[in-house]
Each structure stands twice: as structure tokens, then as C-alpha cells.
Amino acid sequence: MTDPHSGSFRKRISRRGFLAASLLLSTGRARAEAPTPLTFDTLYSEFGVRGLVFSPIVKASAGRAVSIVGYMAPPLKAEAAFFVLTREPLAICPFCQSDADWPSDIVVVRLAAASAIVSAGTRVTVTGRLEVGSAVDPDTGFVSQLRIVDAQYRRGP
Amino acid sequence: MLERILLTTVVLAAGWAAPAAAQTIYPINRAEILAGSKFDLKVEFPGAPMASDVKVTVNGKDAAEVFGKRPMIVEWEDGNKLTAYWLRNVSLPKAGKIEVEAKVGGKSEKVAWEVYGTPKRVAKNVIFFLGDGFSIAHRTAARIMSKGLHEGKYGGELSFDDMPHMALVSTAGTDSIVTDSANGMSAYMTGHKSCVNALGVYCASNKNTLDHPKVETMGDILRRKTKMSIGVVTNSEIEDATPAGVVAHTRKRSDFNDIVEMFYDVKPDVIMGGGSPNWLPKSTPGSKRKDETDYIKKFQDAGYAFVATKTEMNKAVAEGKTKILGLYNTGNIDGALDLKYLKKGSVSKFPDQPDVAEETRAAIAALSKNPDGFFLMVESARIDKYSHSLDPERALFDTIMLGNAVQAAKDFAAKHPDTLIIVTADHAHPVSIIGTYNDDTPGQTPREKLGTYAEAVEPNYGAVDAEGYPSNIDVSKRIGFAFGTSPDTCFNAKPYLDGENVPAVAGATKGTYVENPKACERPGAVHITGNLPFDASSGVHSGDDVLLTAMGPGSEALHGRIDNSYVFRVMATALGLAK
């Protein structure tokens, strides 16, 4: 759990998290619940050629606070409010290269505020509200099945 | 990076200030065109002259008169400062030399084409094998692994080595000396060289990737002119460049959703590969479509058996099905090393995937029911993908797998000698055998373990199984299979037993890649300073010629050094497609 490279970064996030939690407490009990931890292994109960089936935990978490650990894929901009979270670090940038494609089990992350990005080799933990079901991003045309919105991230698992 | 940006600026500025370039004519100079095949004639007149001022002639006659069509002339096409002259979907029925002249004001530009006919058909069937990125060192190393090398001689031949005809194929495109899989395959499937990322089109100035001047593909021609069956078989995503090359027309190979539609237009009788998400309607989780079209259902409605596993594939064949759509993975089908031994990659999610040899046998069984013959394209796709990821053992297993697929075709040809078989590659990788990594030598790091010259001893891979794969690759003496290019990475000269190598990952600076920290944790790993531009995430292709071997009727035309586009001409000639 110790991450010598990002001590101050982690502190800042914690403080922000604390503030956010305080605000949430005052706006409603349901949204202040502890985030349900998800993993890439438990997003789908069936993973087949004919399509994927959301797992019961994903279905039950729709609209609620979740957290998940993954790798930030190369985003569209240096400072981004939108990035793609992947199970493994991507060797490729599907946005930049024509012969690349995204894995099927990605999660799109919309940050509460634009933030600097980290190297794709770094694991991040994303926390936010889960959106379930097909959606097309109005700005990029990007199709996604799972989104974590109003999200924050920190380095490390 | 700054230097490159400045250079780009200078070039752009020079281009802007320079006098207008000459008119550009597509198909380009020295094009060889199959008589009767369809193509788009496009001329771009720079400077956007008035439509009434441009003139295009074919052997001195007005082009509109020659083709019996009115041209479409577009000033400022797509907002570009040019006037486009189009005669779409035309053909030249007779063999001969053609000179096309484009005139505006006092300026004239000419190109010469050769239109070729074909004599009587000599081959009933054509099976075209493409090892993607399949280079000389892959061939040699796979032979060492699979057949053994003792006292300088091999224990046998790989199936593609043992063929009567051989040629050296040059793969460069119209735009560069090193090409990609799209353009490499496009040349084989159309007879026209084009540019990187393009399939079945010349690369003009059009903004829409689907608007560029088209040339007919092998799939188009066979469907339009013959009753032959068509098969497209790969272990990549079926929309990927090589399989797409049989049917597709786009400037951009990543137009996967459009390419699925192009498969539907041509309807090859057998379609097998990975890449199902682009076939599923948008609302299905896992889909990558942007519309609600269910292409699996559309193919089923058109009479296809849809299969998603090896068991279902073999059942469809056993039931005598002749139209089969097989999609066995959401991404690429796993390579032979993962399928057969390591069970890594996506094998746990897709435990019943066929390999390329099994797909080939199934495809031949289904296609060969057609009395008018068949054309089958088979790709072993991941020789290339694993060479990009600098993963020798996976690339070599998939080379052995290509050999097994070719053997299936040779077994068929033994009973059906009217079958032309061609085995080649779309481009090379910069790979070489440089020695033997020997763990019995002291030290931990690759440079301490590499034996060169007299120390490049015979490897000791495990006993070969019934399919020709070594049963163990994690051995003390391994082929030193070197990649000539890399990003910054880490390397320990050991096989990647936990999954495909990931040499580099995206760095914090946009458009740059850094060594994958996981690779650096491997025992004995050393840092390798990349020799590629900073935006390269993996190894790149090379511009070396590739080898082609062939057998069967028509194969005698394949010898010496040839251009990749010439191979199309040989296949079209064997099938008598000009008639």
C-alpha cells in the first residue's frame, strides 16, 4: 500500500475525498454509502462471442458508488476529464493508431474535474458513480458499456 | 520532437507557397489492370480550375466517350483546392497499352497502364496463404524448433518449404519503402499497389475514407464474374487488414464497422476469425457498433450457419453446411502457444477456439463442395502481432501453425491437383537468428548468456508433438531470435510464460512510450534503449523482400524477384478471370 512516489498526491486526494464525503453526508444517506469495490474479473458473468452479460454485482451497483483498480489508457488530451480504464496496461493507444482496438472489458471514466494523467504503467484506483448500459460519448463518438462518472482517481491499488 | 514539428511546419509552408503541383491520375503510372475489372478513374487538377477547362483522354480519345459515361467533375472537392474528374466503376475489356492524358490550360500529364487478358483457366481452386509479417528468420527458426537441426542439417521440411516454385516478393507501397498489412494485402488482392492503411483504393485527396478511387478486389471479381465459392480465414479479428483485403475499399483499415458491411456486400461463403463486437447491435453489451444492425442475424438470414466454437464449426461442416460464419473470439483468436500449452491470453474465456489449421480444414471441406471451384484466403495473423510485441516463441509457434494449415491444403491438393497453392507474407519484420541463449553459461543477463558463432549450440526444446510443436520452450538452450527494432524496453532473453510480452506502455507525456515496468521485474532483465521514434509502442515492420513458395497449376509463373501486385495477376491468370 505504500507508494513512495506520490505521498503528497495521496494526501491531497484524501483531503478532497474527506470534503466530498462531508458534502455527500449532508445531501443524502444513500449517496454517502461506502463505494462497492468492483474488479475487472467480476464485471461480466458471461463473456462470449455473442456479447457480454453484466454480473449481478454490476447490475446491483448501477447508479451507486463503486471503486475499481485498473490502468489508465492513453487519453485524448494531456489534461483530461475523460479516460479509459483497462484491466492491463495497454501497449497501444487505440485513439492514436489505426491498427489497434480496445479490449471489450474497458470502463470509461468521467472525472468530476479535469486532471493531469499518469503513465499507463501505473495502477490507479477510480471511485465514482457507476453507469451501466450502452452509451455513445457525444464529443468523441466513443461507445461504452460501463462508465464511472463524477469520478476521482488516486495512484495505486 | 521539436525538430520534427519545425520540419513539418517548413514543409507545409513550402507546399503552400510552391507553384501548383501536376495533375494526379488514378490508377497511377505503370498500373497493371485485369481486362474487364472495374476501377474508378480519378484525376485531380490542382488549383481548382473550372470544370469546363479540364480534359481527360484515353489513347487520344475523350475518356467519357471511351467509357461511355459522363464524368462527374467537382471543383474544390471536399474543400481542397483542386478540381476532381471522376469516371467511377469503369473497365477496359481489351488487353493492350493504355495512355491516359490529363490536360488543363497548357499543362499536360500522362500515365501509361497495361491492361492484361488471361488465357484459358488452368486452376479450379486457389488457396492463398498469408503469414502476416512472415520473414526468413521466422521460417528458419520454426524449422529448427519443429524439425530439429543436427550437424547442420534439418530433421525434415516445413510444408511451405517443400514446394516447386519460389520467388522473392517486394512489398513497398506507392507512398513508402516499408508498408503495412493493409496495403500489402491490398496489392495481393487487387493487383494495384497503394499506400499504408489503404484497402482496395488508391490514396487520393478525399476527406471521407470511403470515397477514394476504388479498384476491384479478388472477392468482388469472383462474386461478379464467377460461381466460385470464396473463403476468408484468419486468427486475427476478421475486420483486420489482411482478411478485410479480400473484400474492402477504404483509405483507413480501422473502419471496422464499415468493413463488416463490406463482408456482407461480397458474402464470402466461409468467414472465420475473431472480432465479434463489430457484428453485434449497439445495445448488446460488448458491441462496438454505432448502430443497431445485427450482422450475425443478417448472415443467418442469408443462409449462413453461425458458429462460435471449434465444436460448433466441426458440427456445421459434418452437417454439410457450405456457408459458415465463424467468430471465435471478441478479439484475436489466441495463438498456438497459448491455445496448446500455456493457456494464457483469453483461453480461459474462450476455451474452444479452433487454430488456423483446423479452420483451414473446415473451410476446405465446406468450399470444395462447389463444382465451380473455390478461392480461399488463409492468414496466420499473429506471426506479425507477436513480432510487434517482441515475443519470439509465440511468433514461431504461429509460424509452425501456418505450416500445419498449408499441410491441410497440400493434403487436399494431393487429391485435387487442379489447385494452385501460394504461401507468402505481406511485409517483413526485422528479425534474425543471432545465436543461442544458453543458461549453462555463467551470469544472469542476456549478453552473458548469448552464444555466438561456435557457441551458438543446438537448442534443446522439448520433444515435438504430433502437430510439430515443441512440448517445452522453457529450456536451457533457446534460439537467439533478435528483433532489429524496439521502443525503450526491458529484456531477459526468456520466454514469456505468463502471457504475451508488452514491451512498452504509454508514458505520461502524450504520444510517448516508456519501458513496461513489469518487464523490468523479470529475473536478469536489462534495460534496452529503443531505436525507434518515441511514439512507437512496439517493434515495426521492415522493408525487406519476403519469400513466396507455390505449387499447382499457374505457379510456374512465380520465380525471380516480383512485385506483390504481380501475384494477383498470377492468380487471376490461373483462374482465367479476364474472360
Features:
heterodimer, A: 157 residues, alpha+beta, OB fold (Dihydrolipoamide Acetyltransferase, E2P), two-stranded antiparallel ribbon, 2 helices, 17% helix, B: 579 residues, alpha/beta, globular, disordered N terminus
Helix and strand topology:
The complex is a heterodimer of chains A (157) and B (579).
Chain A: H1 7-27, E1 36-38, E2 44-48, E3 51-54, H2 56-61, E4 65-72, E5 79-86, E6 107-116, E7 123-136, E8 143-155
Parallel strand pairs in A: 1-4, 6-8
Antiparallel strand pairs in A: 2-3, 4-5, 4-7, 5-6, 7-8
Chain B: H1 2-17, E1 24-26, E2 32-34, E3 39-46, E4 54-58, E5 61-62, H2 63-67, E6 72-75, E7 82-90, E8 96-104, E9 107-116, E10 125-131, H3 136-147, E11 149-150, E12 153-154, E13 165-170, H4 181-190, H5 218-225, E14 229-237, H6 241-244, H7 256-266, E15 270-274, H8 295-301, E16 305-307, H9 310-318, E17 324-327, H10 336-342, H11 356-367, E18 374-380, H12 382-388, H13 392-415, E19 419-425, E20 431-438, H14 446-449, E21 450-451, E22 477-483, E23 489-491, E24 504-506, E25 513-515, H15 517-520, E26 526-528, E27 546-551, E28 560-563, H16 564-574
Parallel strand pairs in B: 2-9, 10-18, 10-19, 13-28, 14-15, 14-18, 15-17, 16-17
Antiparallel strand pairs in B: 1-3, 3-7, 4-5, 4-8, 6-7, 8-9, 11-12, 13-27, 19-27, 20-21, 20-22, 23-26, 24-25
